[in-house]
Amino acid sequence: MSGTPCQGGLDDGALTVAADVHPGAATVGVGHNGPMLVDVPKLSGARVTVMGLGLFGAGVGVTKFLCRSGARVTVTDLADAHQLRESVAALDGWPVDLHLGGHREEDFTGADLVVVSPGVPDESPWPALPHALETELNLFVKLCPARTVYGITGSNGKSTTTTLIGEILARGPRRVWVGGNLGVSLLDHLDEIGPDDIVVLELSSFQLQRLAPLRWSPQVSVVTNITPNHLDRHGTMARYVEAKQTVVSHQREGDVRVLNADDPFAAEFARDFAGDHAGHLGVDPAGGAPSIRWFGVNAPADATDGTRIGDEVIEHAGHRLDVRGRRLPGRFQLHNLAAATAATADAFPGWAQAATEVMVSFPGVEHRLEFVAEIDGVAYYDDSIATTPERTLAALDTLPGPLVILLGGYDKGLPFDALGARVAERCRAAVVFGQTAGALTAAIGGGSHPDENAGPVDVHRATSFEDAVASARALARPGDTVLLSPACASYGWFRNFTERGRRFKELVRG
């Protein structure tokens, strides 16, 4: 979870939890009309195991928070100390027992509390526990004093939309903290967040699934879009949608839902959930329904609840936000810009000008159609965030050809038929790798390139990621674009899409 305070920009800042915070007593937490009391685990003196330190330090923030709260902390991870050297260095001097290179049963059975990564499935044998489980985000939600929390989820566009919302709100009078599924811990920054601050959280389906027992939803919920994803974890599309619905299912009167008018699943998030829950972190709801703001091509432009996408313009309640000259490539990005507009509209005087300035100048987020380099007349783009076919399809519709695309990775059980057909239409060559190499090769088939003189698409199967990048470089000609947009998760070869994207950039520039 990343913690980034914004005051006129997304700059790093420091938040720390006071050493005398012992959450065994009633503690201030997120509320609608002021702070409210919630119960959190007793941490002072408790034996707590953190499952997963993380290659990029995902578990560092919660570990420091637990130490400051007086807990006796053990951190366990399947990766060894060398693989985790940066994260281990970040905990140098902290009173932590590190058990790395594998999990030990006693670290779980002997713990009073286990803090797990939201990515650990319920059916995982580690931990098979009879007692309390927590996640870092759940702890933050229970302790966060801010009265206004934005929660952004969706299958694609979460990080970009979250960052845009943070940037726009930071132009207003209130301090803004951006976090969630992004990087460094908000728990590690807790004591500077005030009741009048705004917290903006990116929320994954895994995080929302773990949040569901809290019966909590943010005051402003944004759903960018819903397409099949993580079906290897959730099992069915219905269960995936159900996990995502946590972002709206416990909202109350006065809250806001921002929904995509062009998304066929929007109705699943617009319905009344009033009968599905008993309250907000144990507090009875006041009654009434949240308001809904729609964004998209089919959204009404002349109503206060509509943000419509036009031709390089975004319209909201009489405001026309001209986004010509924007740095974010691709028409699909207009939906992210419109979602951010709908979420921040009327948040403060001058919001429309602030939104326009942010949207035109915003350079994008790393690993999201990120330009890497031009070498020997070939342009290289990193779209490692593309872990679904839909995301890769959007990239294919954004970049000009001729294209050499790198595809493949962990098999999440998603269909590749539409992607294969589009690759056959748009790409001169494809390099496939990982578990899905065979399925992708079959989906692409012997499809012909639109240039009748180019012949069928050249599909090369790589044995490693290094081989894949080298093959793409060899296949590319001056004027081509090499695009890493894998359409699959990174697991198996990489810890996450970030590591995959950084390795791609190293190999390209190396």
UniProtKB/TrEMBL annotation:
Binding-site list for ATP: G154, S155, N156, G157, K158, S159, T160
One of the record's GO molecular function terms: ATP binding
Keyword Metal-binding appears in the UniProt entry: no
UniProt catalytic activity: UDP-N-acetyl-alpha-D-muramoyl-L-alanine + D-glutamate + ATP = UDP-N-acetyl-alpha-D-muramoyl-L-alanyl-D-glutamate + ADP + phosphate + H(+)
Biological process, per Gene Ontology: cell division; cell wall organization; peptidoglycan biosynthetic process; regulation of cell shape
Ranges where the Mur ligase central domain occurs: 152-343
Record EC number: 6.3.2.9
Record bears the keyword Nucleotide-binding: yes
Keywords on record: ATP-binding, Cell cycle, Cell division, Cell shape, Cell wall biogenesis/degradation, Cytoplasm, Ligase, Nucleotide-binding, Peptidoglycan synthesis
Compartments where located: Cytoplasm
Pathway: Cell wall biogenesis; peptidoglycan biosynthesis
Limits of the Mur ligase C-terminal domain: 367-488
Primary location class: cytoplasm
Protein purpose: Cell wall formation. Catalyzes the addition of glutamate to the nucleotide precursor UDP-N-acetylmuramoyl-L-alanine (UMA).
Entry's family note: Belongs to the MurCDEF family.
Classification via NCBIfam families: murD (TIGR01087)
Protein name: UDP-N-acetylmuramoylalanine--D-glutamate ligase
